[in-house]
Amino acid sequence: MKHYVYALLSKTNGSLYIGMTTNVHRRLQQHNIGKTRSTKKFTPYTIIYTEEWPDRISAREREKYLKSGIGREFIKTIIS
Fold first, then answer.
1. What pLDDT digit, counting tens, does each position of 28-41 carry?
2. What stretch of H or E contains 45?
3. The GIY-YIG domain covers which part of the protein (predicted)?
């Protein structure tokens, strides 16, 4: 099953959130209606980046990388 790594940008305060899912649009809706504790305070969000991966393990490795300092810098270069 395909998995996706995604980055969201808060329209409220510009904070960045990186996650993994099998359905990006459903997950964005969950973030925007406050079902995710870590993003609840800063809704609404917009998708700024996605990557498709063939399996959960590969997607999780990429998610961990993007959550690192170097990975966050990579995402920031995309949005600037």
1. 999 999 999 999 99
2. strand 45-53
3. 1-76
